[in-house]
From TrEMBL:
InterPro entries the record matches: AKR, Aldo/ket_reductase_CS, NAD(P)_OxRdtase_dom_sf, NADP_OxRdtase_dom
Name this protein carries in UniProt: Diketogulonate reductase-like aldo/keto reductase
Keywords attached to this entry: NADP, Oxidoreductase
Assigned protein family: Belongs to the aldo/keto reductase family.
Length: 275
């Protein structure tokens, strides 16, 4: 799959979502630093910015968007509804708060952050309303496993357009990826760089072969799997490095070598035990 930084995955409703985005998780403690790193990402060519209400940085992300000088229609902004705000009416109120902080009139993608048992179906009804009202261009979920999706699909009117979950060579979850792709649900990988655990002999060999960093090899593998990636970083140099993944293609045998790295290792909570 040959793509460029400006290229997009096409969601089931026709909305275009950049293959590469900037993940802002962890960039919330210092508002000014958050504004600067998001602005730097936009200057580096990123057009997709991922945030969440629980990150505490929606206002900073909104400031960076407004200060970037890039037309709003060229940007793809994602935020997420947190667990304590789930439920029909609470979801609608939480959405309004997020939009006020972001300073946006229309959101590109809204995600249910975790599958809170007994809540996520009611929450999804509110998401469907927001979508039908034209306040959100696309709706989806995060951290949903196959059984969560099957339960949701049994009653929903709109199929989630995206499922964002932990995905990387140490946690490739091929059955979940195949299920989402069979339903037209675009997978987005968070923690795509394994929280920096890139010291692996397979990655070292491939890095030498392709003259790319281990991080670039991993991001390229994910792209070729048809997965959107949202790596996070706090440095401008890494922003540029992470974006330099569109000028090479991994051979099939090398894709398979990375496939074999899977050890079902998680760096976040299990979706059946959301915190």
């Amino acid at each position: 799959m040959v793509v460029r930084i400006e290229d997009c995955a096409v969601l089931q409703n026709g909305v275009r979502m950049p293959w590469l985005g900037f993940g802002s998780m962890g960039a919330g403690a210092n508002p000014e630093a958050t504004v600067e790193i998001v602005a730097e990402a936009i200057r580096a060519g990123y057009r997709s910015i991922d945030t969440a209400s629980v990150y505490g940085n929606e206002a900073s992300v909104g400031r960076a968007i407004r200060q970037s000088g890039v037309p709003r229609e060229e940007l793809f902004i994602t935020t997420k509804l947190f667990n304590t705000d789930q439920g029909y009416e609470k979801t609608l109120r939480a959405f309004d708060r997020s939009m006020e902080k972001l300073g946006l009139e229309v959101l590109d993608l809204y995600l249910v952050h975790w599958a809170i048992q007994g809540k996520y179906k009611e929450t999804w009804r509110a998401f469907e309303k927001l979508y039908r009202d034209g306040l959100v261009r696309a709706i989806g979920v995060s951290n949903f496993l196959i059984h969560h999706l099957e339960d949701l699909l049994a009653d929903c009117e709109i199929v989630p357009m995206v499922n964002q979950y932990e995905y990387h060579p140490l946690l490739s979850q091929p059955e979940l990826l195949a299920y989402c792709q069979s339903k037209g649900i675009q997978v987005t990988a968070y923690f795509p760089l394994m929280q920096g655990r890139l010291d692996h002999p397979t990655l070292a060999e491939l890095s030498n072969k392709y003259k790319k960093t281990a991080a670039q090899i991993v991001l390229r593998w994910e792209l070729q799997k048809g997965v959107v990636v949202i790596p996070k970083t706090s440095t401008a140099a890494r922003l540029t490095e992470n974006a330099n993944i569109f000028d090479f293609i991994l051979a099939e045998e090398d894709m398979e070598r990375i496939d074999r790295m899977n050890t079902n290792t998680r760096f976040n909570h299990h979706p059946d035990d959301p915190k």
